[in-house]
Design brief:
- The chain has 548 residues and is α/β, with parallel strands linked by helices.
- The protein contains 19 helices and 24 strands.
- Helices cover 35% and strands 22% of the residues.
- The structure holds glutamine (GLN).
Length: 548
């Protein structure tokens, strides 16, 4: 597109958790499918410098970018939808904004001025919003503001949007996402919370251009016009967003509602190509019309909160779609697994995935799950801590190192088969200090990993402090657990496999962060394929009467 970068802001009203991330990613997908270049960023109003130190119970998974930033899980949606990597610049928190401003103040950059929320904090926010646009590669920068309009903490962000709209005029557009609650007693959707939420935004000086209304039921006739009248928007800019069967339906639903067209017109883009979503539709067709079903166990300690394993779940779903198989994920709590009950919990599963994690809670259960998968020839994928537990399990039960452990769990073990990386030993801060982001890995020919990647040189994203202790490399090799992927510079072990097993792979890195709709990750694809060979059941074809 010729001309300047256009900025689209997405705010939320009425309540949190309305799915701003999915709406932002869906709009971005539609613009991308019309041939535009788009990126999405998330502004998070909390004071943590990044979400890396947040407990997953608080905020779900921490998503890691190629350049090693620990970010909000919405960036995972952006990448899965757009298949374009994000970076440090795509997520910022209030903590980071203040840290930058305070650092500048300490360096004397404000020349003795009183440092204030307006203009210094808002200038820092605006600089961050425009940093991606200044690269000159994006036609559109979509900026999602976390939280709900009216929260004390999001005020500086809304103020920064107000100022940018004033400065940039027609190059800016604001989409406000609200809720239409359904009152069962009267059988009606109510518009009043939306009206109030728009008033709140107006009181901060921002007039939304487009309203996206989340609703469980279809909007009644005349409702769009009513909302339009009360909120100073055009009726065709009131977009209905019904609950979807899958998040991957949302771009098509938004297309049907004309969201992208309204946005383009309001931004003065009058000519544009048709949407080409054929690959996306092909994915959805496979996803929704599987020919078989397969049962996979996901063993972790945060299974009550599925958002803690968001990227893993989505990567499994992508792999299921490629294989035209419906995945039934059994979420297994690692703290509940014991030698006695493991067969009861994991019996009948065709694949077992052991999840990443930190700290000792639940690791003995993970080790039991791995022993069960290894001894019963069930396809196994261990990710990060899951791989480390596979090494501990093999040490204890095959090599006879009865107290084998990671020094993270037991600093005094006589067999520290997993130990802290040298460069980590002097690190005291918790935030942003792990081995983070993409690193190279050399894959051995003839291995399962080679069959998966079909090449020797790969890179994958990391987030860990501990590693396979190379002092044990030969002992493991002799006993049948082989390092089939290592970092070419540091020789750190990246992949382990067990010989004489149908499919047993542990990876120190996080393949889930790289899986997208356009390119499902091959490790997940092959893991699911191996599980299907173990035991997939055909899906009964629906009769025509059932389809009707
Ligand atoms: N706790 C382990 C480490 O720090 C594993 C981390 C993870 O699973 N992401 O090395």
């Amino acid at each position: 597109m010729t001309g300047s970068t256009k900025y689209i802001f997405v705010t939320g009203g009425v309540t949190s958790s309305l799915g701003k991330g999915i709406i932002s990613a869906s709009l971005a997908k539609l613009l991308q499918a019309r041939g535009f270049t788009v990126t999405i960023q998330k502004l998070d109003p909390y004071i943590n410098v990044d979400p890396g130190t947040l407990n997953p119970y608080e905020h779900g998974e921490c998503f890691v970018t190629e350049d090693g930033a620990e970010t909000d899980l919405d960036l995972g949606h952006y990448e899965r939808f757009l298949d374009v990597p994000t970076s440090k610049a795509n997520n910022v928190t209030t903590g980071r904004i203040y840290q930058n401003v305070i650092n500048k103040e300490r360096r004397g950059e404000y020349l003795g001025k009183t440092v204030q929320v307006i203009p210094h904090i808002t200038d820092e926010i605006k600089a961050h919003i425009q940093a991606l646009g200044r690269k000159g590669i994006y036609d559109f920068v979509i900026t999602e503001v976390g939280g709900t309009v009216g929260d004390i903490e999001s005020l500086p962000y809304v103020e920064a949007i107000r100022q940018l709209r004033w400065q940039k005029g027609k190059d800016c557009l604001t989409i406000h996402l609200t809720l239409l609650p359904y009152l069962g007693t009267t059988g009606e959707l109510k518009t009043k919370p939306t009206q109030h939420s728009v008033k709140e935004l107006l009181s901060l000086g921002v007039q939304p251009d487009v309203l996206v209304c989340r609703t469980e039921h279809p909007m009644q006739k005349g409702m769009k016009e009513k909302i339009a009248l009360f909120c100073n928007v055009d009726a065709n800019a009131v977009i209905e967003s019904r609950d979807a069967e899958t998040i991957y339906d949302v771009p098509l639903m938004m297309q049907a509602e004309g969201l992208d067209q309204v946005v383009l017109q309001k931004l003065g883009v009058m000519t544009y190509p048709d949407v080409d979503l054929s690959a996306w539709q092909d994915f959805l067709r496979r996803y929704k019309h599987p020919t078989s079903e397969v049962r996979i166990g996901l063993v972790g300690k945060y299974v009550e909160l599925k958002d803690a394993y968001k990227s893993i779940k989505e990567a499994l779903e992508h792999a299921g779609a490629v294989n035209e198989s419906r995945l039934h994920i059994k979420w297994v709590h690692s703290e509940k697994l014991t030698a006695k009950n493991v067969a009861k919990h994991l019996g009948g599963l065709s694949g077992i995935l052991v999840a990443p994690g930190f700290g000792h809670r639940g690791i003995e259960g993970k080790i039991e799950a791995i022993k069960y998968a290894r001894e019963n020839g069930i396809p196994f994928l261990g990710i990060c801590l899951g791989m480390q537990c596979a090494v501990i399990e093999y040490g204890r039960n095959v090599l006879g190192y009865t107290d084998a452990n990671s020094t993270e769990m037991n600093a005094d073990t006589t067999h520290p088969v997993i130990a802290m990386m040298e460069e980590q030993k002097a690190v005291e801060d918790k935030g942003g200090t792990m081995r983070l982001g993409a690193y190279a890995c050399k894959v051995s020919e003839g291995s399962t990993a080679y069959a998966v990647y079909k090449k020797k040189d790969i890179t994958e994203r990391h987030r860990h402090r501990y590693e396979f202790n190379n002092a044990y490399l030969d002992d493991y090799k002799k006993a049948g657990m082989i390092a089939t992927g290592t970092n070419p510079q540091t020789k750190l072990v990246e992949i382990v496999e067990v010989k004489d097993h149908p499919w047993f792979v542990g990876v120190q890195f996080h393949p889930e962060y790289r899986s997208t709709v356009a390119r499902p990750h091959p490790l997940f694809v092959h893991f699911v394929k191996a599980a299907m060979q173990q035991g997939a059941t055909p899906v009964k074809q629906e009769t025509e009467a059932q389809q009707a």
